[in-house]
Design brief:
Bound molecules: malonyl-coenzyme A, adenosine monophosphate
Number of strands: 24
Largest sheet: 9 strands, mixed
CATH superfamily of the largest domain: ANL, N-terminal domain
Structural class: alpha/beta
Helix content: 25-40%
Strand order of the largest sheet: 2-1-10-9-11-12-13-14-15
Shape: globular
CATH topology of the largest domain: Rossmann fold
Number of domains: 2
CATH class of the largest domain: Alpha Beta
Radius of gyration: 22 Å
Number of helices: 12
């Protein structure tokens, strides 16, 4: 089956099939524009796409998919350090800019991509080092979207509304490719602002918890969502007070789902099932989960015992690009993917995510940020001698990034800007504390547990 049936001409088309901000196109118009892009990128080993929230990004990504060329979305606010890494590591031969002008990157020539090439390469942070390219196949994407359509009874009658970035799983795979696979209309609001969600009149809404928290802070916008069929939250834990407040303001219990760039969405509450605050539901069709304790033994499914959540199934990635070592490390000897998330599972199979095994992966506003990547960038500043980055609990962002830095003659504000400009905006520390020394143990390792805001 085609990956994107909406573009096959078989479904009734609409002039507003895909809308981004105040511009719209029909599926036929999208197909024509994307086919033109496909002609220009065909044969490239990979194509980087400046993934601003625009119709051009939609055309570029779909064009790459039509050409069978891996698309590598680049965050539009990424600075030179992040962008250069993504372009170099992915081997992208072209960068499609905001006007769809293909600019050569000077990497690699053009050949027909071998079968089994990834459809998408999404860059995501680990605890240390630079972001890794997660290779996602068409089959994994199709399996995930079909399972989600079943779980949420998502159909061509829906109008999907969201304003999430078009370079991560949530906004791109679910929020764009999902609509094109199911054949539902999509209204992307440019930014995920509560007033824009309210004005869009959708039946199905996607948001990260920070978006839902901001919707609840504007009760009038929240009430405007009462007529929607389904409000879905994911990418980070939805705080119970936000769940309760959404229910009170909209009359709706949000559906929570859990996933990762590497696994796509693996667990979700069902439209017809229970929606319990603090819980993310049951494994999707085609996905199996298990909990493993620190001793390597299975953990009881009793709702309170916790262990590392491991997953297996059709939605998993094909590996980290150029990183067979990291790919191998991500799996157990018996072939399960280690999520690094700590969870409990009820007797009825309902999953509850309780935290992460490593404190060095930070979730801020639904973005995954590796402490190591921010630390390395800070250390590349000539005035910085030592740096340690942590995530601190934050009511709106979930966690916020805080840095402790030993520096000579450089101001805290300048270091915030240095990260925002070199990496990307959401990776910037919201606060930088200049300190005389970092707490270290006898081995010289920074003791992050001793860092606390003073
Ligand atoms: C202030 N600003 C600065 C700044 N100080 N910008 C740069 N440097 C500084 N020093 C300005 C910005 O220009 C911006 O203005 C404004 O502050 C707010 O920007 P921000 O503070 O950076 O963003 P914020 O409001 O905190 O963003 C919240 C958010 C965003 C929810 C909109 O975090 C978001 O889009 N999150 C989605 C992440 C996501 O999609 N994750 C999915 C991962 S996939 P202006 O004018 O630009 O507003 C995954 C798998 C799964 O996890 O399960 O789904
Ligand atoms: P990313 O790599 O950006 O895809 O982030 C994946 C991580 O987001 C997971 O490993 C979880 O830690 C977190 N996450 C995603 N969805 C949820 C959820 N519904 N509840 C709690 N954590 C979540």
């Amino acid at each position: 089956m085609l990956l994107l049936p909406a573009l096959s001409g078989a479904l009734p088309d609409r002039p507003d099939a895909v809308r981004v901000d105040d511009r719209q196109m029909s599926w036929e118009q999208l197909t024509v524009a994307a086919t033109e892009v496909a002609g220009r990128v065909a044969g490239a080993p990979a194509v980087a796409v400046h993934a601003a929230p625009t119709l051009e990004t939609v055309m570029a990504i779909v064009g790459c998919l039509l050409a069978g060329v891996p698309a590598v979305p680049v965050p539009p606010d990424s600075g030179p350090a992040e962008r250069d890494h993504i372009v170099a590591d992915s081997g992208a031969a072209l960068l499609l800019d905001g006007d769809l002008h293909p600019r050569p990157t000077g990497r690699g020539g053009f050949t027909d991509p071998p079968p089994g090439e990834p459809a998408l390469i999404l860059y995501t942070s680990g605890t240390t080092g630079a972001p890794k390219g997660v290779m996602l196949s068409r089959d994994a994407i199709a399996a995930d979207l079909d399972a989600l359509a079943t779980a949420w009874a998502w159909t061509p009658d829906d109008l999907l509304v969201h304003g999430l970035p078009l370079y991560h799983v949530h906004g791109l795979v679910l929020g764009l490719l999902g609509a094109l696979r199911v054949g539902s209309r999509l209204a992307h609001t440019g930014k995920p602002r509560p007033d824009r969600y309210a004005a869009a009149g959708g039946s199905l809404y996607f948001g990260v918890p920070t978006v839902w928290s901001r919707v609840c802070a504007e009760p009038e916008s929240a009430r405007a969502l009462s007529g929607a069929r389904l409000l879905v939250s994911g990418s980070a834990p939805l705080p119970v007070p936000v769940f309760d407040s959404l229910r009170a303001l909209t009359g709706q219990r949000p559906v929570e789902r859990y996933g990762m760039t590497e696994t796509l969405i693996t667990v979700s509450a069902r439209v017809a099932g229970e929606r319990r605050p603090g819980h993310v539901g049951l494994p999707l069709d085609g996905v199996a989960t298990r909990l493993v304790g620190e001793d390597g033994q299975p953990v009881a499914r009793d709702g309170s015992a916790i262990g590392e959540l491991q997953v297996r199934g059709a939605t998993l990635f094909s590996g980290y690009l150029n990183r067979p070592d990291a790919t191998a490390e991500a799996y157990t000897a018996d072939g399960w993917f280690r999520t690094g998330d700590i969870a409990a599972i009820d007797v009825d199979g309902d999953h509850r995510i309780v935290g992460r095994a490593s404190t060095d992966l930070i979730k801020t506003g639904g973005y995954r940020v590796g402490a190591g990547e921010v630390e390395n960038h800070l250390l590349s500043h000539p005035g910085v001698r030592e740096a340690a980055v942590i995530g601190v609990a934050h009511a709106d962002l979930g966690q916020e990034i805080v840095a402790y830095v030993v520096a000579d003659g450089v101001a805290a504000d300048a270091l915030v800007e240095f990260v925002a400009a070199g990496l990307s905006r959401h990776k910037r520390p919201r606060r930088v504390h200049l300190v005389d020394a970092l707490p270290r143990n006898a081995m010289g390792k920074v003791q992050k547990g001793l860092l606390s805001e003073t």
